[in-house]
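Newbie here. two chains, one complex. Structure please?
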Amino acid sequence: MQTYNLTHLKELESEAIYVIREVAAQFENPVLLFSGGKDSIVCAHLAKKAFYPAKLPFPLMHVDTGHNFPETIAFRDKFIKELGAELIVASVQESIDQGKVVEEKGFNASRNGLQTVTLLDGIEKHKFDAAMGGARRDEEKARAKERFFSHRDEFGQWDPKNQRPELWNIFNGFKNFGENFRVFPISNWTEMDVWQYILAEGIELPPLYFAHERECFVRDGVVMSTSKFIPQRDTEETKTMQVRFRTIGDMTCTGAVESDADTLEKIIEEVAATRTTERGTRSDDKRSEAAMEDRKRQGYF
Amino acid sequence: MSSYLDMELLRFSTAGSVDDGKSTLIGRLLYDSKSIFEDQYEAIEQTSKKKGDEHVNLALLTDGLRSEREQGITIDVAYRYFATPKRKFIIADTPGHIQYTRNMVTGASTSNLSIILIDARKGIIEQTHRHTFIASLLGIPHVVFCINKMDLVDYSEETFEKIKKEVEAFASKLDVKDIHFIPISALKGDNVVNKSENMDWYKGSTLLYLLENIHIGSDHNHIDCRFPVQSVIRPHSDEFHDYRGYAGRIAGGVFKKGDKVIALPSGFSSKIKSIDTMDGELQEAYAPMSVSMTLEDEIDISRGDMIVRENNQPNVSQDVDVMICWLNDKPLQAGGKYAVKHTTNDARCIIKDVRYKIDINTLHRNEEDKNIGMNDIGRIAIRTTKPLYFDSYRRNRNTGSLIIIDEATHETVGAGMILT
């Protein structure tokens, strides 16, 4: 007798496509958040599969800190063009210019925290009622508690102690006017699943993920790319290193790892052997033990 | 390296009372299968030291929220992930005490397997009954009883066998399909990942071996063809001018190209013209695949409708009896109106009758006390504003489950398993 079994990647893909289709069906004005990182690239790829041969029934929105790696922006523009989707850019610089947020000062200044205000403004301005994103439960302990459909009040706040129970594959997108949802189609994927899927599907990625030579310096044990956005101390010596990025946020908060993995196969081997978490290079998570939870409560992803 | 293409996914949940060693067991599985990262381990090592714990407290790995760590309790279901070369695992880690039933039902709803922990020193306690009953109610195909803390009963075979007999006697009254028993010590690592050297009398497999090898291919219903339509794909492009695809995730059965099908509720019949994905056409599709289907004839089908095989149709009715688990502080209102979500269908319903409430410790059906509050389970009769197309939950978890939503607060207040 034939057995009807899906591989884990096919089952995760099927689940994510189902979730994305539910969003399109249950909400009037959804959006897919797109950072140019691998998780949001995978989400956009899944969205394309969900509605094929039709186009995406929602736009993509990039919350732009203005401190991007140039490679990310070049990739973003090319990717969107090939996808044939609409891109909305919500700019942190605009939020600063409008006086809605104040830029951090000092050596460790980052616009990462300011993104929340810009994100919430973007959602409000375009009247989005659901914002999908590529956050995964395995990334961080507060995210391990997230729902697929995460309800936010009119201030965009997450209330982790009072979440709606989520049963079977039935998603409750009911809400009051002015409230919205964050939806995470790849909640159940791990870093390894994402890489295996990228390889299996032949998905193109920004070159930052692959080992390359780069001018770097080391701060608090984290390898940072030199950049006009990060003031360097005199003691922080610039050197050329062979690195790649495991995650891509903006330049001020994303650390690199020393690596010679310049192909997907080598990256998968490296991920399998690595002994530190993916976000271990993210200084934005290290500000306190509950850094992610606190940012999420305020409306961050 | 190429083996990842053959990996399967197993979803399991864990149940245990406070101090049964549930967190230690999960920590042990993650630790011995090398799924804990150094920075994670260092972080909990530091926190354990700060709190004055003697050992590194593996429970800290699973407690994600600030208030959980402060109070040392788990509030909400957390999801954990690990993989071995054979399978990828998703653990729904459900808290042991606070809002117990609600969380266990949530975690169990998507599980293939449930691990129920029993303290070897205490044997079966009231909560063991409760855990087993919920696993049976939620139709979890496989239940594994881990008799834990065997090191504290001198690895006694008699103790293990006695508990096993008692559980078997109790479980025979319930509908649990596949039961396993493993004597373990989560703290010392006996029979979790590595075979115990202290229990030669135990000839069975370790927990991880069981998780890696248990047959899950029959967990989905591959007999009754059910395709709830999520949305209709109409590209309106030159290339796909007349394309009309019905998008959805197969809820049961195996659909093949050329199959004679009918659409509910219209009852119109047609044949499957193609089963499409972006990667190309498929000859057949089965649960839980997400696909889109085209039919030979143009018939009116929209979200909430269901495509089924002509000679195997679901029940169609507005009157449904449901075993309900209540999830909200505000009790069920007999005679009250609620919103219902079932497959991709939305309806409203009225609670016509509360038939009985179940005492989840004794399984006694109480027909006098019909007050269904938070964490209660009972049988109710509802009437919906339009027909639902359903199977019994026993037969199909996808087409036999529904949720009830409070129309004022929009909260999910009830989890329902359809009986008839």
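Moderator note: Chain A has a mean pLDDT of 86. Chain A touches chain B through 67 residues (CB under 8 Å). Thread marked as resolved.
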